[in-house]
From TrEMBL, chain A:
Main location: membrane
Membrane-spanning parts: 6-28, 75-98, 118-140, 161-179, 238-260, 280-302, 322-341
Catalysed reaction equations from the record: a quinone + NADH + 5 H(+)(in) = a quinol + NAD(+) + 4 H(+)(out)
Entry similarity comment: Belongs to the complex I subunit 1 family.
Protein name: NADH-quinone oxidoreductase subunit H
Known EC number: 7.1.1.-
Pfam families in the cross-refs: NADHdh (PF00146)
Topology relative to the membrane: Multi-pass membrane protein
Species of provenance: Mucilaginibacter dorajii
Function as written in the Swiss-Prot or TrEMBL entry: NDH-1 shuttles electrons from NADH, via FMN and iron-sulfur (Fe-S) centers, to quinones in the respiratory chain. The immediate electron acceptor for the enzyme in this species is believed to be ubiquinone. Couples the redox reaction to proton translocation (for every two electrons transferred, four hydrogen ions are translocated across the cytoplasmic membrane), and thus conserves the redox energy in a proton gradient. This subunit may bind ubiquinone.
Localization per Swiss-Prot or TrEMBL: Cell membrane; Membrane
Broad class of enzyme this protein falls into: translocase
Record gene name: nuoH_1
InterPro entries xrefs: NADH_UbQ_OxRdtase_su1/FPO, NADH_UbQ_OxRdtase_su1_CS
Superkingdom per UniProt: Bacteria
TrEMBL record, chain B:
Cofactor(s) annotated in UniProt: [4Fe-4S] cluster
Lineage per the UniProt record: Bacteria, Pseudomonadati, Bacteroidota, Sphingobacteriia, Sphingobacteriales
Primary subcellular site in the record, as a coarse category: membrane
Gene3D superfamilies registered for this protein in UniProt: 3.30.70.3270
Annotated positions binding [4Fe-4S] cluster 2: 84, 120, 123, 126
Protein name, per record: NADH-quinone oxidoreductase subunit I
């Protein structure tokens, strides 16, 4: 029991560090990828190919003057970004990063905790994320911040509904809320996206909206709202908000990869596992999972430099009039088809 | 009314069909376009390390020329200063002393010759005005600096390097 606890703590620290490093280098990747999409070369001055750029940016953020506006509520003003980054970080607790590893007689579970309501936990954490934005915008005591925060909150709440509905169709097939079991069911190339293509499409659209990424990046808007909910923020508190967005992107990529794209499963994994042993084999699965996550992060950035943003009424139209009916239709379709298949004995 | 230019074109706005309203084909088309750019060679020129090729008649920083024996050609006639529309050029003439024949070609030379690079518009009229072929705008781009006074270039920066060095 004692060693198990130590393994867990080490795993928590590792996952925490990995999510921070991934988020840090997502900022670099975003700038580099944006440059490539625009026929430029991107940051290349700090270190070879500019790989020290995130450190330079972080240093700049820490050294800038910290301003708390006179009319702001200081306590809530500080709590806002803390809450944003906290909720972004704790989502990773239920994601299965790999199969069980056996090293020297010890079985190591590459998952911090396998709770049987993992999917619900993720949704709970995602909805908590709204509070960071809302409190920050409210505490700033600035009309732009408040309007930006209200926009962000209403957008997140609207898209959470269709996200939840799109996941219900998946849960009807898996019959479990545990992410570990969902991942295990997709052994080999038996990925859920093959059975739920529409569900995945709805989920990824909602994931874009939940992480406030283009084309749903309306909470920030220079022309109307200055910086949106973080207009009054400066220094590292602003950095936390921006950082939380990248961590959210990482976590939602991990969730999408786990729920729909097989998580750490890949075709021919049994053969690889038999040839590499139970200590190294699961790590290859973890590498595959991270490859999928990075592909999703790349896709997030690719879309950002392709699609222009929505107008706010179009955003609400899409959320309420198109995605929710489609998600409900998907539930009905899934139910009918799976019952029919069972009935005719497939 | 009849259009005079005959270029008037009436556009028809058709309602979108289902395929177009689904947006997905258009989005995939857009993603393909951006992907094409992703693999295209960047057009960036990393300026201080890499320089763009200039055309042959590019006018950059001025240089005061020497003749084939390494003597300064400028005779401080002041025609360049007179022709300068920006009034960027100023000079002080001096008489050549005995023993300075290897330095200056004529009996009179410019003891001080200054061009204010902030005033200069790089039109090349000084070049055209010079009867001695002493000034040419054949140099590089004038570099940036911090102080206005540092943009007044004297003979130390303008005169060509001596021949035998």
């Amino acid at each position: 029991m004692g060693t198990d606890l130590i393994f867990r703590i080490v795993l928590i620290v590792i996952i925490f560090l990995i999510s921070l490093v991934v988020a840090m280098y997502s900022t670099y990747a975003e700038r580099k990828i944006a440059a490539f999409f625009q026929d430029r070369i991107g940051p290349n001055r700090a270190g070879p190919w500019g790989i020290l750029q995130p450190l330079a940016d972080g240093g700049k953020m820490f050294l800038k003057e910290e301003i708390i506006p006179t009319n702001a509520t200081p306590f809530l003003f500080i709590v806002g970004p803390c809450l944003a980054i906290l909720t972004a970080c704790i989502g990773s607790a239920v994601i299965p990063w790999g199969q069980k590893m056996v090293v020297g007689g010890h079985t190591i579970d590459l998952q911090v905790t396998d709770i049987n309501v993992g999917v619900l936990y993720i949704f709970g954490v995602v909805s908590l994320g709204v509070y960071g934005v809302m409190i920050g915008g409210w505490a700033s005591n600035n009309k732009y911040s408040l309007l930006g925060a209200i926009r962000a909150a209403s957008q997140n709440i609207s898209y959470e509904i269709s996200m939840g509905l799109s996941i219900i169709a998946l849960l009807m097939l898996t019959g479990t809320l545990s992410l570990k079991e969902i991942a295990e069911q997709q052994h080999g190339a038996n990925w859920n996206v093959l059975r739920q293509p529409l569900g995945f499409l709805l989920f990824i659209v909602c994931a874009f909206a939940e992480t406030n990424r283009t084309p749903f990046d309306l909470p920030e808007c220079e022309t109307e709202l200055v910086g949106g909910y973080h207009t009054e923020y400066s220094s590292m508190k602003l950095g936390f908000y921006l950082f939380a967005e990248y961590i959210n992107m990482f976590i939602s990529s991990a969730v999408m990869a786990t729920l729909y794209w097989g998580g750490y499963n890949y075709p021919g994994m049994d053969w690889v596992l038999a040839h590499t042993g139970p200590a190294i084999g699961p790590l290859i699965g973890t590498v595959v999972l991270f490859a999928k996550i990075f592909l999703f992060i790349f896709f997030f950035m690719w879309v950002r430099w392709t699609i222009p943003r929505f107008r706010y009424d179009q955003l609400m139209d899409l959320g309420w009039k198109i995605l929710i009916p489609l998600a409900i239709g998907n539930i009905v379709l899934t139910g009918v088809v799976s019952t029919a298949l069972k009935h005719f004995g497939f | 009314m009849e259009s005079l230019s005959n270029k008037k074109k009436v556009l028809e706005v058709k309602p979108l069909n289902l395929m177009e309203r689904a947006y997905l084909p258009a989005i995939i088309g857009g993603l393909a376009t951006t992907m094409k750019h992703f693999f295209r060679k960047p057009v960036t020129i990393s300026y201080p390390e890499e320089k763009r090729e200039f055309s042959e008649n590019f006018r950059g920083m001025h240089s005061l020329k020497r003749d084939e024996n390494g003597k300064e050609r400028c005779t401080a006639c002041g025609l360049c200063a007179l022709s300068c529309p920006a009034e960027a050029i100023t000079m002080t003439a001096a008489e050549r002393q005995k023993g300075e024949e290897h330095l200056y070609r004529e009996e009179k030379y410019a003891a001080v010759y200054e061009i204010n690079m902030l005033r200069c518009i790089f039109c090349g009229l000084c070049e055209e005005a010079c009867p001695k072929e002493a000034i040419y705008l054949d140099g590089d781009i004038v570099p940036a600096d911090y102080l206005r006074k540092d943009f007044i270039y004297g003979k130390d920066k303008l005169v060509e390097a001596p021949l035998n060095q």
